[in-house]
Design brief:
This protein has 169 residues and is α/β, with parallel strands linked by helices. Helix content is 34%, strand content 13%. The protein has one domain: Response regulator (Rossmann fold, 3-Layer(aba) Sandwich), CATH 3.40.50. It starts with 7 loop residues before the first strand and ends in a 6-residue tail after the last helix.
């Protein structure tokens, strides 16, 4: 498999950028093999929003670095000088239903629905398990993305390829 001329920039979006999008960013940067550079953002992160501690713990338990992870607004990626995105993936249904900014370069888009592992009211043990399950599901789907041949990552085919990645049972 030939390596693309540059890493494909992938932006994962969620509402608060504290759980699913953070997990996806960390996993893709971990397994991307230099072919992918992942980022994450939220449509409306809360003031002083931080990545969820149970998500960071799940990543560390999986041997995935959490060093550079922080919550941020998707507005950062529409600013001059922001990295050009090749693919934008929403990972929560709320963000998918919102009107997204117009991304420079009109990247490919996809929606991958995952339940919120930080749902309030659940016990800590239930939330730990929920974070683990979302992490494992993201790892499976992102492994499929990273295994796509370079031809499927060409701009014209990337959107269809990302939208049609089904998780193995």
């Amino acid at each position: 498999m030939s390596k693309p001329e540059h890493a494909l920039n992938v932006l994962f979006l969620c509402t608060h950028n504290s759980a699913r999008s953070i997990l996806a960013e960390a996993v893709l940067n971990h397994i991307g093999g230099g072919r992918f550079k992942a980022f994450s953002a939220g449509s409306s992160p809360r003031d002083n929003q931080q990545p969820h501690p149970l998500g960071l713990q799940a990543l560390r338990n999986a041997g995935i670095s959490t060093a550079s992870l922080h919550s941020k607004s998707w507005d950062e990626f529409g600013q001059p000088g922001a990295p050009h995105m090749d693919l934008v993936i929403t990972v929560c249904d709320n963000a998918a239903g919102e009107i997204c900014p117009i991304w420079p370069g009109h990247p490919a888009t996809a929606h991958w629905s995952y339940a919120d592992p930080s749902t309030g009211g659940a016990s800590e043990a239930h939330q730990r398990e929920a974070f683990l399950q979302v992490l494992l599901a993201l790892q499976r789907r992102l492994s499929l993305l990273t295994s796509l041949p370079s031809e499927k990552l060409e701009r014209a085919l990337l959107q269809d390829a990302a939208r049609n990645l089904h998780q193995p049972a």
